[in-house]
Specification:
By secondary structure, the chain is α+β, with helices and mostly antiparallel strands. It has eleven helices and seven strands. The protein has a domain at about 155-255: Enolase-like, domain 1 (2-Layer Sandwich), CATH 3.30.390. Helix 10 runs antiparallel to helix 11. The longest helix is centred in the last third of the chain and has 19 residues, at about 240-255. The strands form two sheets. Strands 4-5-6-7 form a four-stranded antiparallel sheet, sandwiched between helices. Strands 2-1-3 form a three-stranded antiparallel sheet. The protein binds flavin-adenine dinucleotide and iron/sulfur cluster (SF4).
Length: about 260
């Protein structure tokens, strides 16, 4: 029920989950954040222009009508996890941080019971049902977002690259959190926005960083690993290089908070 502003500026969130606060404060504008609910942000739909342009085909809006973006304007579209049915991206900033942190979503089911959904399982890839953005079942109500015990409160950064500094969604974003002890990374939380139909958790990259030193060469190696397997279109090839550099920068900025 809280607004994005209330959550991002809550003193406990600011001190214990500053990565989440930083990501939320990068979204939209102050006016929109004051109105946007956390439940609504979890369920906001893609900004693909064909989704809004009702004279154009769009499988997400009208299943079976085709995908206008596939051979159309797709410079802002996905480079990972898409299908021939939909190549859209998820636009949320908050959700990228929640993916990096490893949140859980609690939902109230129509039969009166509750269930918990791991954040990485909450949003879905398009497959052959792009009209479905999440794994919610009809009638379910989001009642809470659970956060794990506080981590990454010293080393964190949310890097959002966008076409203008306000009222704009991410072309690419990176949520990076590090736990560093005695000069070694003991845990990493890493996720990207603007690259897939869902917040893109970089599990292999997180595992790679664990036990490594927070050096530029390790950050460069993990960025290359994270972008491995990207399948861009002609118009969004820029996202591969931008994504790699954004990961290095977000990790560097995160670590520099500590030193
Ligand atoms: C111009 C503009 C720019 C924006 N830029 C950004 C940006 O850069 N980054 C970003 O992250 N976001 C951005 N947003 C999105 C914004 O931050 C809001 O998150 C989004 O508009 C959702 O708004 P809302 O809370 O009013 O949700 P609503 O529109 O009220 O809800 C969205 C959907 O979720 C459902 N819903 C809401 N709460 C629940 C619940 N508890 N359980 C089940 N279903 C629920 C509603 O029924 C509805 O279907 C932007 C929005 C605009 C208009
Ligand atoms: S990318 Fe997805 S949302 Fe955009 S036109 Fe294709 S089906 Fe619709």
């Amino acid at each position: 029920m809280l607004s994005n502003s209330e959550t991002a500026n809550n003193p406990e969130i600011r001190t214990k989950y500053p990565l989440l606060s930083m990501a939320m404060l990068s979204a939209a504008t102050a006016q929109i954040r004051n109105m946007a609910s956390n439940g609504g942000n979890l369920l906001q739909r893609t900004r693909c222009p064909y989704f809004f342009e009702t004279s154009m085909p769009c499988n997400k809006r009208k299943p079976g009508s085709g995908c206008g973006a596939l051979n159309g304007m797709n410079s802002n579209h996905a480079i990972f996890g898409y299908s021939e049915h939909c190549i859209a991206t998820n636009p949320s900033d908050m959700c990228v941080a929640l993916a990096a942190i490893g949140a859980t979503v609690e939902v109230h089911k129509p039969d009166g019971d509750s269930r918990m959904i791991e954040f990485d399982d909450f949003h879905r890839l398009p497959g052959n049902q792009p009209e479905k953005d999440t794994t919610l079942i009809k009638g379910e109500l989001i009642t809470a977002i659970h956060l794990p015990k506080p981590e990454f409160s010293d080393c964190y950064y949310y890097l959002k690259i966008r076409e203008r500094s306000s009222y704009a969604y991410a072309l690419i974003s990176v949520a990076a959190g590090l736990e560093v002890k005695d000069g070694v990374i003991t845990k990493a939380g890493l996720a990207m926005g603007g690259v897939a139909h869902k917040p893109w958790k970089l599990t292999k990259a997180e595992e790679f960083l664990s036990g490594k030193k927070p050096t530029l060469s390790n950050f460069e190696a993990v960025a290359e690993l994270a972008m491995d397997g990207a399948k861009p279109f002609e118009a969004n090839k820029y996202k591969v290089e931008m994504g790699e550099k954004a990961i290095v920068r977000a990790l560097t900025q995160a670590y520099e908070r500590k030193v």
